Structures are given as C-alpha cells and as structure tokens.
C-alpha cells in the first residue's frame, strides 16, 4: 500500500467514514494502493443516544466484522496527538506501546463528551449518562438504593439540564424508580435548567407538548435556576432552594473531543473545528473533521450541524468519501443535510417527533414512541457485515432522514 487514510474513532461518524472511504477506493479500483486504518479503543459502536434508558442491553455492538468485510485495518488504541505539519499521529496501543503513524489523509471522528463545570461537589457526587460506563454506574447506584431505608433523598432524582439528554433522562425516571422502589413509593423527579421554561429551547410548537408530558409524568420543573452545589445528601439551587436527593444527574453541555483543539483553525464555543464545505479542516492540509468534532453548514440558509447522531451519520459518510476521493481521483462531494428532525423520548408519556429547524410537531405520544423505538433500536445500529449492502448506502449524498 502506498497511501494511508487514518480514521480516529469507531462511533457513528468514524464507522461510516471508514465504510464510505472504502467504497470510494473500491469504485476507483485502488484497493491495492490506499489503505484505511481505524484507530479506536475498542472495535465497538456505543449507542450513546440510548444511554438514558433503563435497560442497558446491546448498547455497544461490535463492529469488527464490519471493518473486516470492508478491508479496514483496526488498531486497538487511542490517538494521543496530531502533528498536522508532519502529517502523523501518535497512537497509544491498548496493550502499551506507542507508535507514530504517518497519514495521507486523517479523519478526526473522536466525538464529544459531557462538559462538567466546576460546580462544588459535582465531580464527587454527580452521575451522568454520557458513556456506557457512567450509565452503568448510575444504574447500579439506583438499584442499590432499593436496599437503603426509604427517605426523601433516596426517592428523589434531580436532573441538571433541560436539553435533550436531560429531558429524556428525567422523563424515563418515574417509571424506572417505581420499578426499583415499588409502584406506591413516593418518588420525586426534578429537572433544573436556567432557561425561562423547561423545554423552551425546543421552540414554541414543541414547548406545550413537553409541558404536558412533564405534568402528566409528575416531573417537577425548576426553570430559571442552576445547580449551585451538590453534596452527599442533595443539591442546592442558585435561588437557595435545597432538594434532598441521593441521585443528581448532570446533563448540561457537551464539548468536542480534546484532539479537536490540536487541529489548527477556527473553533466554536463547543471546541468543534469549523469545517469547509467538504469537511476539510481549512488550515490543516490532509485533515478532515467529522461528527461531533466539526461544525459545518447543513444548508445555504444559515443552519449548522449539531452534536447529534443524525448529523454524524451523514458527516461521516461525506468526510470518509472525500478523504478517499482526493487520493483516488474521484470527485469530492460537498456536505449538505437540509432536512432536520428530532425525536424526543418522554418516558411513559410517549415521544415527540418534530420536523424542521423550527421543530414543527408531527407525532406525539405512542405514535412518536413507535418511531423513537425504530430509530433507537434499528436505524442507528451498525449495518450487517455485507460489503456490497454497506457500500450501497455509504454514498456521500445518502439521505439519512428521507
Ligand atoms: C444520553 C445521550 C442521548 C443522545 N440522544 C441523541 C438523540 O436522541 N439523537 C441524536 O441525534 N443524538 C443524540 N445524542 C448525541 C449523539 O450520541 C452524538 O452526537 C454522536 O454519538 C456523535 O457521534 P460521533 O461519531 O461524532 O462520536 P461518538 O459517538 O462519541 O464516537 C466517538 C468515537 O471515538 C472514539 N475515541 C475517543 N477518543 C479517541 C481517541 N483519542 N482515539 C481514537 N478514538 C477515540 C470513541 O471510543 C468512539 O468510538 C445523544 C448523546 C447522549 C450522550
């Protein structure tokens, strides 16, 4: 092999970048000339959008067979640094040794992580659902509370953050707590957010729906305040209110993976690299940025990609295709994803499905839930390890949401 494309990350963007890069190389008949290498700590795809759920089953499917079927070489390790001048990355292998690998094209797909601000006590007493490990820790903690004497603190969960993850975690919680403590237990779930109303960010059409769901589920909104401190017995809010609680879930704020900071060029407030239309990092020759590490225009009327699976699935395809296309002489393809939808799980109430950037409500309750389950349990999972079937949906203009 004379040329190398290195993809860092086996999440939604990294997996589809590898598949689309392999497809482009195959289209050009250059399998013997260009190699795709994926570096990731494990050859799995963590289904992060489901980590708020009560049953953490099949949340980390193996993708090694997929990589084998498309001829991608897998390295079990982490990229520790990027030398954009020398076009190389430093890799720490899981079993210890370090290696420096040069690249012809590098695709940064290392995702994002929860941003936990220095709120006193949060690091010691807070829980979250950002990674499978942290979701499992929360689950074990909740189940262990069943053996603790009933108290207001035991029965109360406080969720900090009224965005997607916060709303999904909070609305799942009443049913989850009743399953653990018993149907008659006086459980309490509180959701805290500095916005003027919980769910206000979802837009005027969706807000009344969220209000109705929270009300029906008995989730108590605390808008207009922040969590000021956390301790072993509960939280204190910025307006001085004290809530006794053994379980505080932090769900406010995401940051791009720290490697994005090593890519020269402009970054947004979340640490994402501002990518060009082809998802190149404009100031780093040979580097593509994708998934949660890039901010890219989704259309020509001023909308930008979000840190979402919906965008990562398309951003990955485009970045992988373009990285390979530049090497094998195929046309590159601009990123475009004008259709934007959301499907917000609202626990036992159902789910809310919206279309458009103004989030027009299309489906609610069980109709929405059916779609949410389809998305969460089928659509976002890795494909079967069938090379031709994968290539048939790995084109850079593949439409994620028709
Ligand atoms: C609780 C929760 C709910 C969500 N709900 C939704 C939703 O309903 N809809 C939606 O669209 N989005 C949702 N998201 C967001 C979505 O999960 C992310 O936007 C998506 O995972 C981003 O994909 P990615 O491939 O960029 O990154 P990730 O999925 O984060 O994958 C990153 C990959 O990089 C690897 N990696 C990390 N560091 C290194 C390194 N140094 N070297 C090599 N590899 C590395 C990781 O192991 C992983 O394989 C949710 C997220 C969470 C946490």
Q: How many beta-strand runs?
A: 22
- Helix segment tally: 10
Largest sheet: 7 strands, mixed
Q: Kindly state the percentage of residues in helix.
A: 25-40%
List the ligand species.
flavin-adenine dinucleotide
Question: How large is the radius of gyration?
Answer: 22 Å
Per CATH, the superfamily of the largest domain is FAD/NAD(P)-binding domain
N-to-C span:
38 Å
Low-pLDDT stretches: none
What structural category characterises the helix and strand content?
Answer: alpha/beta
Short synopsis of the structure:
Helix content is 28%, strand content 25%. The protein is an alpha/beta fold.
Account of the protein in words:
With 402 residues, the chain is α/β, with parallel strands linked by helices. It folds into two domains: 196 residues, FAD/NAD(P)-binding domain (3-Layer(bba) Sandwich); 129 residues, FAD/NAD(P)-binding domain (3-Layer(bba) Sandwich), CATH 3.50.50. The protein contains ten helices and 22 strands. It has a seven-stranded mixed sheet with strand order 5-4-3-2-1-6-18. α1 runs parallel beside α8. The longest helix has 20 residues. The radius of gyration is 22 Å and the shape is globular. It starts with a strand and ends in an 11-residue tail after the last helix. The model has no long low-confidence stretch (mean pLDDT 97). The chain binds flavin-adenine dinucleotide. Flavin-adenine dinucleotide binds next to α1, β2, β3, α6 and α8.
């Amino acid at each position: 092999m004379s040329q190398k494309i290195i993809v860092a990350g086996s999440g939604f963007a990294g997996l589809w970048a590898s598949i689309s890069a392999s497809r482009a190389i195959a289209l050009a008949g250059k399998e013997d000339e260009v190699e795709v290498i994926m570096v990731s700590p494990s050859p799995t795809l963590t289904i992060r959008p489901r980590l708020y759920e009560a049953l953490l089953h099949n949340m980390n499917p193996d993708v090694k067979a997929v990589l084998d079927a498309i001829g991608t070489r897998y390295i079990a390790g982490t990229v520790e640094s990027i030398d954009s001048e020398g076009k190389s990355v430093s890799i720490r292998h899981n079993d210890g040794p370090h290696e420096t690998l040069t690249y012809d094209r590098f695709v940064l797909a290392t995702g994002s992580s929860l941003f936990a601000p220095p709120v006193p006590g949060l690091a010691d007493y807070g829980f979250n659902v950002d990674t499978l490990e942290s979701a499992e820790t929360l689950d074990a903690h909740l189940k262990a509370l069943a053996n603790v004497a009933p108290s207001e603190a035991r029965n109360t969960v406080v969720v900090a953050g009224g965005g997607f993850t916060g709303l999904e975690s909070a609305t799942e919680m009443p049913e989850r707590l009743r399953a653990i403590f018993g149907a008659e237990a006086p459980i309490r779930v509180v959701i805290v957010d500095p916005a003027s109303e919980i769910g206000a960010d979802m837009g005027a059409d969706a807000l009344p729906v969220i209000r109705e769901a929270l009300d029906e589920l008995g989730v108590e909104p605390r808008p207009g305040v922040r969590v000021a401190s956390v301790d072993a017995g509960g939280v204190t809010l910025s307006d001085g209110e004290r809530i006794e609680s053994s379980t505080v879930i932090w769900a406010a704020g995401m940051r791009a993976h720290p490697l994005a900071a090593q890519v020269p060029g402009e970054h947004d407030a979340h640490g994402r690299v501002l990518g060009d239309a082809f998802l190149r990092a404009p100031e780093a020759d040979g580097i593509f940025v994708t998934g949660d590490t890039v901010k890219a225009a989704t259309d020509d009327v001023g909308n930008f990609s979000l840190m979402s699976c919906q965008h990562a699935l398309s951003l990955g395809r485009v970045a992988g295709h373009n990285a390979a296309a530049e090497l094998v002489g195929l046309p590159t393809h601009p990123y475009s994803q004008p259709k934007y939808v959301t499907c917000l799980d609202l626990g036992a109430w159902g789910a809310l499905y919206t279309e458009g950037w103004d989030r027009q409500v299309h489906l609610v309750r069980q109709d929405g839930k059916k779609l949410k389950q389809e998305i969460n349990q089928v659509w976002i999972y890795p494909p079967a390890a069938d090379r031709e079937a994968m290539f048939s949906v790995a084109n850079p203009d593949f439409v994620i949401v028709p």
